[in-house]
From TrEMBL:
Its cofactor is [4Fe-4S] cluster. It comes from Sphingomonas ursincola. Residues 59-224, 272-397 form the Aconitase/3-isopropylmalate dehydratase large subunit alpha/beta/alpha domain. This is 3-isopropylmalate dehydratase large subunit. Keywords: 4Fe-4S, Iron, Iron-sulfur, Lyase, Metal-binding. One of its GO terms (biological process) is carboxylic acid metabolic process. PANTHER family: HOMOACONITASE, MITOCHONDRIAL (PTHR43822:SF2), HOMOACONITASE, MITOCHONDRIAL-RELATED (PTHR43822).
Amino acid sequence: MTLVQQIIADHARQARAEVGSIVEVEVDWIYAQDGNVPTIARLFELHGLHVGDTSRIRFVCDHSVLAPDRLMASRVKDAERFAARQGIEMVPVGSGISHLLAAEQQWFRPGRLVLGADSHTCTGGAFQSLALGMGATDIACAMAEGRTWLRVPETVRIELRGRPSRHASPKDVMLHILATNTPEAFLYRSIEWCGEWIESLNAEGAATVANMSVELGAKCCFVSAWQGCPSGMMRIDPDAEDGARKMVIQLDGLQPQFADGHAISTGRSIDKADREPVDCVFVGSCANSRLEDIGTVARLLRGRSIAPGLRLVVTPGTRNIHLQALQHGHVETLIAAGALVTPAGCGPCVGTQGHVPADGDLVVSTMNRNFLGRMGNPHARIVLVSPLVAAATALLGHIPSLAELEDLTLTDDVSPDHDRADQPERAS
């Protein structure tokens, strides 16, 4: 059986879980964010529900850490009151993004079945959890019953061969794959990521790959055992005969990418970008707000200043990441260069708090989505890039060419795998 079949069979207390079958499974862990908790609370009130096991549930305030208006402030307060009534632990505001906290606090563990009230719960696939994003109704039922139902998905095993260029990161790899494959191939499927490049990653790179798997349309994903991974994780065999459909993707020479045009599927080499002026650069989101990401930006900005008239916003993924960035001197470097460093959380990504771009603004961002209106303004344009390209853009005021990127990095090694002192977001 594939990994998803093994985990589902285990949690359904069955010998096997056949692809396409409908099964009821026990849930190990549930978490929900402030955007969905008020809806869950109304469902509990409407249907007279009660929480079964509060020890396996957490609420996180990450979408509106700094409430921008009275409506959002009231929704956060409603979430806190519901948590108190039900005896559920509400993680302190400002602790960080739910998916990164799930990694730090080990809600994600190999073989676990985890539900989250957010589509990027699939980040847990970096730790070989069956981590599923669900809507408020399914989450409410699972909170009450401790169980949920699933259709066992087919598996697509993707073997990544070769090595991308020196300045290409896991984010660039995912933008490339999204641009060269249609979501129809992955809808409601489990992706198993494997190959030598995958197994060379650290926790942060693996988490970026897992996080963006949902953009391919996947139901869930699993990343093969990477460098320093926790015990219990398995090396995924690309040649295993277990019914998985197989794909091979070549990465040799892949250059840093950018995705434009209100679509994540438009990734191409930064050499093909127009050198038009950029108004804002945002480094953050559950895709790229980890210590390695912030360190990459800080190293390129050290001793330099951002372009005149440009706003650079950096939002650490968790409070612990923020503290580590302070200890490494990254925050001081960013502020000295002209950046705005915000409290930990989702930041501007979802558009429920600032910075909201102005009409006509061009935003270059490390987020995982750039659809129309994503940051709260449908009259702004969002381009997706890696942290290194974001840092270069902040310095130049436009998306760099490959030659410009190379010139900026001549004096420092700012490649994505540099500085292993920036430890991954959880201990193994």
